[in-house]
Design goal:
18 helices, 3 domains, DNA polymerase, domain 1, alpha/beta, 9% strand, 406 residues, Nucleotidyltransferase, domain 5
Length: 406
Amino acid sequence: MSRKRPASGRQKSIAPPRLVQSPTQYKQFLQHVSDQPWLALDTESDSLFRYAPRVCLIQITAPADPGGHHSLYGIKNVVDYLIDPLQLRELSELGEVLADDSTDVILHAAENDIITLQRDFDFRLRRLFDTQLAARILGRQGVGLAKVLSEEFGVVSDKRMQRTNWGKRPLSREQLTYAQIDTHYLPALRARQIRELEKSKRLEEALAAFRMLETIEYRPPEPRTVWHMKQIRTVDERDLGVLQAVWEWREKFAEQADRPPFKVLGESSLIHLSQKRPHSLASLRDIPGLSSRQVSWFGKELLAAVRRGERLPAPQRPTPIRKAETVLTGAGKRRYEALRQWRTKTAKARGVDPDIVFSNETLLQIAAGRPATLAELEKIPAVGRWKAKAYGDSLFSLLGRDHGDR
């Protein structure tokens, strides 16, 4: 393992990234990355700085040669691109490249990138290789990218950049370096993982898991409500009307100011407002977490929200969501517990986390549906062909022991 060096001091072996900010640069980039055997991909967003987050940077690492070699070994024969979607309004051609069935797309912890790229650009990624998921299938612990890069390549990422504003221009040298490193080593990491997966006879399992990632679909989040507050259960019924009023004010203010709601006013401050119900600017200054600057900025609006909330009846609490396992009958619950025990033993024997075998949700579907054939087992969305074949006999044996009511 090479000696660790801070990522902020660029390693001499890494050439600076190529910024893609103009139509000319974008055209040259597309010529290079089209028809490549593989591309590494990552994104950076500004969720800590806007009401509605957006993708602010797309990182692509490609073979250095156009129409490059199929070899993934080494970390020198690559070129790193940083595409600026805030400057380039039309990126559909990049989406076509990433959806090409002849190009492998390498990511680390792919799900969030899949969702955000669908959300912002309607990109549909194909032929995915998730290096974090591969590490988990290999039984690795501590599979965050920073830890993996440190252990595999002696690279130390600048963690400060995780909370930086990626929507601000120009990007700093530290931001550019951090973004580049997120994809620069992924092709070499993938090469190492493929060798390990082949050696441990887990490559087929990994490829099947990657295919499952291709089925992920972005769904717009449910509208935020006061009931999403983490501390809502601590609030008395008599304070809920004021809490709802100040919460709704914060949501509207945050949207208009294009700021995350928590950066306008924290949850604890909202709860203190609902409990103390201040009626003057002076009393607002006694609310924890509310600064003099905030009082000057929007204090009168807050006071109006408090008065409005005092006139409102307490909102009705939503019906608690039933846990999925509660829909099972007594026999179904026994099947579910038997499946959970089997999964724990199987995962331990394989040296992986339990959810690499099956998630709780999938076990519930198996317990409820009681599939009797491989075809029926495969139809359960998160099972698929590989897991059906690998675990089918054990599952059928467990399910067959219980002939009680479903």
